[in-house]
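[step 3/7] fold_predict: job queued, chain A
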Amino acid sequence: MSGAPELQTIDMGVSMETEEGLEIIDVLNEVSEVRAMAGHLVTFVGALVGTSGPIGHLTTIEAYRCSGGVLLHAVTASGPHWAVGGTTGAAAVSMIQDASLHQPVTAWLARVGLD
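[step 4/7] structure written:
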């Protein structure tokens, strides 16, 4: 699914005006160029590399290759979504607070070519 960078829109699961929404926007600004924000949606420049199935308590993780690195957007079944970023997939994984997710996310990133 990897391709050239293009406009991507993600659902943050919360309004951009909440603490959780602002944290996702901050991560996006570190690795990409935010183009638009409206409510719970944010649009940025990146290339979708892959979407996982369920990992741990997460519904899915979306991985994007951006000009400044890698964005991992974690979608939860309930509650706000979250994101981490880094210059590489490994650097992004190291930013995940729940250490029990490190190994399965690292393995998935290797399968989609972002290790």
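[step 5/7] annotate
The chain has three helices and six strands.
The longest strand covers residues 41-51.
exit 0
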